[in-house]
Design a protein that fits this description.
Blueprint (H helix, E strand, L loop, with lengths): L7 E2 L1 E6 L4 H5 L6 E4 L4 E4 L12 E4 L2 E3 L5 H17 L4 E7 L5 H5 L11 H15 L3 E13 L2 E4 L11 E4 L3 E4 L5 E3 L2 H17 L4 H7 L1 E13 L5 E12 L13 H26 L11 H5 L9 E8 L6 H14 L3 E2 L11 H31 L22 H24 L5 H38 L1 E2 L10 H38 L5 H61 L2 H10 E4 L4 E4 L9 H4 L14 H9 L32 H12 L5 E2 L2 H6 L6 H7 L9 E2 L30
Parallel strand pairs: 2-6, 2-15, 7-14, 7-15, 20-21
Antiparallel strand pairs: 1-16, 3-4, 4-5, 8-9, 8-12, 8-13, 8-17, 10-11, 13-14, 18-19
The protein binds adenosine-5'-diphosphate and magnesium ion.
Length: 764
């Protein structure tokens, strides 16, 4: 097994789904054509179909049209990847594309239909079949299932679905999800069960499953560990990890009009996806030294799959209909870029975190323990055989003297014999009339105890054996644990299919090469018999080149347009976020007391690990030792005591109120600065005037000067007299009396000094 060190490209395949019922019913035009032989996708623009615009052509590693079978994709594209995972490489399959184009169909497919099963179930079959056919290898297979939604990681296999998990990084093993559960699976059925549980949990938290699944990323992880005796006589462990990723829908989330929660959601949903795009761009750019893996959970978690230690396949899913053309083109451009990512996969040999090693060690330890137990047992047996038994054991048992009689049958016999022997002894005692009643009872008790001990020991031994068995059963060995239901013929068939797939792939590659060389060599090969012929051929070539130039130009134009759109969208998002921030600032500046604000600012810190702002817990200052240590006088007592109490206690230990709490621990409430509202007292004269005034339809003039003075505030010169007065003739004036404590009509002009005013720290 050679370790591959040379970089290899991310493999990109495109799959176009068939038109669905609705599209057929609405008679949508099909704008996508698929050239399986050349590995090309050709997209016509429906708007200017007749005009001069040329159809756009994209070339990929392979392409699949609407007639493609799941098994074809598996054999040609995914099987080689899973095979390398079984060899100890990391492998990743991404399904990318607009919602409804077949990502989940490709990854999971239709569960109960073997024909339409997706990559995930097919890989289960593949992995366990491979193990069952292996020889002299030990395998351990485990699975995890997680989901990323709005930049939060949820373990789909955990009981507590409300919990959010964190990413952690270790220098030796890289980024991992802390506390992610993983289940050891021993068969296809078991791992399918794990997948089903995860899928059920996936829909549990979601109110609208369609929307949820189109906005979240689901990652199914299968880890295959394999232990094999190396040429050096040591056991070596290889660990392959397969990430099966069903990405969120790639369509643009409409951000227009989004605010608050909705805006946050919109920006977060696409964060992982746009970060993925940015990582891809940075990787293929070649100029950028910084790859923004840390920008999102998805890219951080799958860092290895993008330019690192993994083999990666990206399946781009597209729809054929005309109304999807924009998204289809975006998807094709996106995946076209991904083709150029170079990975450096290598076999993971003897990694530190191999679970298989742990299992092997644990089994060895338990076995040693069991050995020791049975050793003890044997010694005792031998002792008994030698006639050391004090209570008259007979030695009629005819056991074989094998040193290694470890098999369960023999053990069972041993236990049974012991039990029977004790029973007969018990009976003998009962029947022995020579013994005194007391003596008899004692002997019987003894026997009873012995029997119980025997039982306990037996149970402990059995438990240990069961534990060893359970652990061993988790380690899979070829042809033993798993029913191999594939016979030789089937294996041949598989091999043939694989060969055909390989053949097809090579053909396609050659065809692509021929195509590109054709143009280069055309000229060299030609010998012109006449000038006219030369002109013709060259004209033809010129035309061809011109067409190509036009296509490239159109492509550049398109990409520029896409960029402009992206930029506008980003600017819009930025504007919205800035507005949001400004609002928050205003609220803080105007409504949060400065000291509170400072307290919070002092407590806040940025956690580099989680990339999140966090709050330090409220603690006393560290240097304030006085507060932290217990006062001397209180050592050994419930609470501080005065010297007097101390002395009194020594004199009279039964002192009353000893260690009683004499301190007041009620909260110290601040002095009130406000008053209860009181019904205004209105002089009868005023009441009468009021009554009078209300009777006629005219407005009432209010003078609030008395109100301000009653609160002890001096209003700004302008406020009371000029801004509130609306000089209109013929109106009765009320509330003129400055002695009235509060006016029944409070002024409500916005300029009133009673309302808080901005401290003016934020520019408006
Ligand atoms: P996505 O996960 O990308 O949102 P789905 O996988 O849910 O899309 O596919 C949407 C619908 O299209 C499903 O009903 C699925 O069965 C159907 N579909 C997708 N791809 C194919 C295909 N290649 N052949 C047949 N049906 C398909
Ligand atoms: Mg889906």
């Amino acid at each position: 097994m050679s370790k591959s060190k040379s970089p290899e490209s991310v493999k990109v395949v495109v799959r176009c789904r068939p038109m669905n019922e609705k599209e057929r019913a609405a008679k949508f035009e099909r704008v996508v054509s698929v050239d399986v032989k050349f590995g090309q996708i050709i997209v016509r623009n429906p708007r200017e179909a007749s005009a001069n615009e040329l159809p756009k052509v994209f070339t990929f590693d392979s392409v699949y049209d609407w007639n493609s079978k799941q098994i074809d994709l598996y054999d040609e594209t995914f099987r080689p990847l899973v095979d390398s995972v079984l060899l100890g490489f990391n492998g990743t399959i991404f399904a990318y594309g607009q919602t409804g184009t077949g990502k989940t169909y490709t990854m999971e497919g239709v569960r109960n239909d073997p024909e339409r099963r997706g990559v995930i179930p097919n890989s289960f079959e593949h992995i366990f079949t491979h193990i069952s056919r292996s020889q002299n290898q030990q395998y351990l297979v485990r699975a995890s299932y997680l989901e990323i939604y709005q930049e939060e990681i949820r373990d789909l296999l955990s009981k507590d679905q409300s919990r959010r998990l964190e990413l952690r990084e270790r220098p030796d093993t890289g980024v991992y999800v802390k506390d992610l559960s993983s289940f050891v699976t021993k068969s296809v059925r078991e791992i399918e069960h794990v997948m089903n549980v995860g899928n059920q949990n996936r829909s549990v938290g979601a109110t609208n499953m369609n929307e949820h699944s189109s906005r979240s990323h689901a990652i199914f992880v299968i880890t295959v560990e394999c232990s094999e005796l190396g040429v050096d006589g040591e056991n070596h462990i290889r660990v392959g990890k397969l990430n099966l990723v069903d990405l969120a829908g790639s369509e643009r989330q409409t951000k227009t009009g989004a605010q608050g929660e909705r805006l946050k959601e919109a920006t977060k949903i696409n964060l992982s996806l746009s970060a993925l795009g940015n990582v891809i761009s940075a990787l293929v750019d070649g100029r950028s030294s910084h790859i923004p893996y840390r920008d999102s959970k998805l890219t951080r978690l799958l860092q290895d799959s993008l330019g690192g230690n993994a083999r990666t396949v990206m399946v781009a899913n597209i729809g054929p209909a005309s109304y999807n053309v924009e998204e289809t083109l975006t998807t094709l451009r996106y995946s076209n870029r991904a083709k150029n990512i170079k990975n450096k996969p290598r076999i993971n040999e003897d990694p530190k975190d191999a679970l298989l090693r742990e299992f092997q060690e644990e089994i060895a330890r338990l076995k040693a323990q069991l050995q020791k137990r049975s050793g003890k047992k044997k010694r005792r047996r031998q002792r008994r055989r030698a006639g050391e038994g004090s209570d008259g054991e007979d030695l009629e048992e005819g056991e074989t003297e094998e040193e290694d009689d470890e098999d369960g049958d023999d053990k069972g016999d041993y236990w049974r014999e012991q039990q029977e022997k004790l029973e007969t002894e018990k009976k003998e005692i009962m029947e022995d009339h020579s013994l005194v009643a007391e003596e008899k009872a004692r002997l019987l008790r003894e026997k009873q105890k012995k029997m119980e001990d025997l039982k306990r020991e037996r149970e402990a031994g059995e438990m240990l054996a069961a534990k060893v068995k359970a652990m061993e059963s988790k380690l899979l060995v070829g042809g033993k644990n798993i029913v191999d239901h594939t016979n030789e013929q089937q294996r041949m068939l598989e091999q043939k299919r694989q060969e055909i797939a390989e053949q097809k792939r090579r053909e396609r590659e050659m065809q692509q090469q021929v195509e590109s060389r054709d143009e280069e060599t055309l000229e060299l090969k030609e010998t012109y018999s006449s000038l006219q012929q030369e002109v013709d051929i060259k004209t033809k070539k010129l035309k061809k080149l011109f067409a190509k130039l036009q296509a490239v130009k159109a492509e550049i134009h398109d990409i520029q347009e896409v960029h402009i759109n992206d930029r506008q969208e980003l600017e819009q998002t930025q504007n919205e976020l800035t507005r949001d921030l400004k609002l928050k600032h205003l609220i803080i500046e105007n409504f949060i007391p400065l000291e509170e604000k400072n307290k919070i600012v002092n407590r806040a810190y940025f956690d580099e690990e989680d990339e999140y702002w966090k709050m330090k817990p409220i603690t006393r200052l560290e240097d304030d030792h006085q507060m932290m240590t217990r006062p001397l006088s209180a050592v050994g007592y419930k609470r501080p005591l005065s010297h007097h109490a101390h002395m009194a206690m020594m004199l009279r230990p039964d002192m009353r109120y000893k260690a009683e709490n004499i301190m007041m621990l009620d909260m110290d409430l601040p002095a009130r600065t406000t008053k209860e509202y009181q019904e205004p007292v209105i002089a009868p004269k005023v009441a009468a005037a009021l009554e009078d005034a209300l009777r006629d339809e005219d407005e009432i003039q209010v003078d609030a000067s008395g109100f301000h003075s009653s609160l002890g505030q001096t209003p700004p010169a302008s406020s009371s007299s000029s801004s509130l007065k609306k000089p209109k003739s013929g109106r009765p004036r009320t509330g003129k009396k400055s002695s009235t404590p509060t006016s029944p009509f409070s002024p409500s002009s916005p300029g009133s000094p009673l309302y808080p005013q901005s401290r003016g720290l934020v520019p408006k």
